[in-house]
Amino acid sequence: MRTVWVFGDQLHRGIGALADATPGTDRVLLVRSAHKVGSRPYHRQRLHLVLTAMRRFAAELRAEGFEVDEVDAPSMLAGLADHRRRFGDPSVVATEPLSRGLYDRLTTAGVGLVRSNQFLCHPEEFAAWAAGRRTVRLEDFYRWQRARLGYLMDDGGPVGGVWNLDHENRKPPPKGPGAADGWPAPTTFPLDDVDRQVLASLPGSVVGADPVGWWPTSRTQALERLDEFVEVALAGFGPYEDAMLAGNWHLGHSLLSPALNLGLLLPGEVCDRVEAAFRAGRVPLSSAEGFLRQVIGWREYVWGLYWAWPDHADQNALDAHEPLPPAFTGAAPTAMRCVATTVGELHDHGWLHHIQRLMVLANLATSAGVDPRALLDWMTASFVDAADWVMIPNVMGMATFADGGRMATKPYVSGGAYLNRMSDYCRGCAFDPKLRVGERACPFTTLYWDVIDRHRDRFARNPRMAQQVRGLDRLVDLPELRERAVEVRGRLAAGTL
After folding, report:
1. What pTM was estimated for this model as a whole?
2. Confidence bin at 180 (pLDDT 50/70/90)
3. What residue segments make up the domains of the chain, in order of their start?
C-alpha cells in the first residue's frame, strides 16, 4: 500500500498527491513535528489553528475510509522514519511542499513529489513569465494573471476598461459616532473537545490570547466563512480596504488568508465566488477587483518570488541592526496609540490587515532601523496566516526595503500624517502627527524624515524618493530633528516610548 504524506498546509482532498488517492490502495501520513511547534514563541492561535485543522482533516479522511497514521515526532523526517519502520518501508509520495527547506529534505529522503495545484501559478510558470524581464513588478504579473485566468475579463480586456481600481479603494475611515459599527462581526465557530485537547497540548512558549473561534479549522467552517464574506462583507470591502479603526479589527476584510494558506480553501474557488457575485450585480467592480488583485495578484506574486529568489531572507540593504522594539511583543507599553492598538489586536486575534502590518509595524521598524530579519522572525511567529513563502517576500521586499528595491520601487515609510488620514488612531494620542521635533512630536513623523536623512544618497537616486530627499533641505529644524530621532530610536529600543 502506498503512503501519501500530507503536510499541515495542504489540508484539502483535491491537492496534488491526495487528489487521486483511494482508500484501500493508499494510506495517509500526517506528522506533527515537536521541533516545528517549539522552534519559536508562536502565537497560541496559530498553533491551535494548524494542529486542530490537521486533526479534523485526519478525521475526515478516516470517515472516507482511509487508514490515517498521525505521528507525533521530534521532526518531520523522524516521523517519516518511524512510519516507514512500522509499515514495512512503503512507497511514499507527497505533494510539492510550500517550504523550500522541506522540499530539499524530502528529495534527499526519497519521497516522490507530485506537482502542486494549490496555487493558480506554479513556480515554474512564474519563472517562465519572469524570464528576461528587467523588473518583476506586481502590476505586470497581475495583468498577466487576469488575462490568462479570465477573471473580470470581457472581450479580451478588463471589465470596465481599467485593470486596477486601487484609486477607488483608498478612502479614509468614516468619522463620527458609530463609525466602527458599519461592518458586522464575522461568525465565530464554537470550540469543542478537539480544540480544547489541542490547546492543552501547546508548549509553554506560546504567546497571545486563547482562540474564541475566529479561524476556521475545517473545510466546512472555511466554506461557511467564504459564504459569509461574499454575501455580507465583500460589497463594502473595496473602498475602505486601507482604513484602520480602533473600534473594529476586521472591517470588510475577508479573514480567509489562514484558510487559504492551510489549503482548507483553494484560490480558484474563492475567486470564482467573487467573480460570480460581481456578474450577478451583488458587489461593485471596485470591491471585486480589489479583492481579486489580492488573491491572484499579490498572493500569487509573493509565492512566485519566494521560489525565484532563494536569498531574499538574507538581505539588509539599509544596514539596519536595531533590535525589535519591546512595544511590538507587548514586553513594554507604548504611548503611541497606533502601535498600542495594533499590537493589542495582534495579541487578541493573531491577525492584522495588510495596512496595519505595512504602515504601522513595518513602517516604524524600517524608519527606526530595526534589523529586518528580527522583524521577519517575529512576524512569522505572530500571525495565524504566516508561512515563510508569505513572510519573506512581504517583509524583506515590501515592508522593510531590505532588498534595496528588487521587489518594491520605494520604501514604504511615512510620517504621522498618513496614519492620521487613514485611521482614528491619532485621536487622543500623546503625540501630535504634525510635529517632528519636541516632546510631543509623533515618532513616525520624526523618524520618517530621519530615515530619509540617514539614507539620503541612496534615496536621492530613487525617482520615487528624490522629491522627499530635496524636501530635507527645506527643513529649518533638521539639526533638532536629528537629535530628536536619536532620542526616539533609543527610547523605542529601550521600551520607554
Report:
1. 0.96
2. confident
3. 2-114, 123-308, 314-494
CATH for 2-114 is 3.40.50.620
- Other CB atoms within a 10 A radius of the CB of residue 113 amount to 15
- pLDDT value at 392 more than 90: yes
Q: Which fold has domain 123-308?
A: 1.25.40
- Within 8 A by CB and 6+ apart from 193, the residues are none
Which CATH number applies to 314-494?
Answer: 1.10.579.10
Residue 116 pLDDT > 90: yes
pLDDT single digits (tens) 267-313: 999 999 999 999 999 999 999 999 999 999 999 999 999 999 999 99
Cβ neighbors of 334 (< 8 A, separation 6 or more) are 325, 327, 340, 343, 495, 497
**Tell me, what's the pLDDT at 208?**
98
Q: In the chain, what percentage of residues exceed pLDDT 90? A: 96
pLDDT surpasses 90 at 47? yes
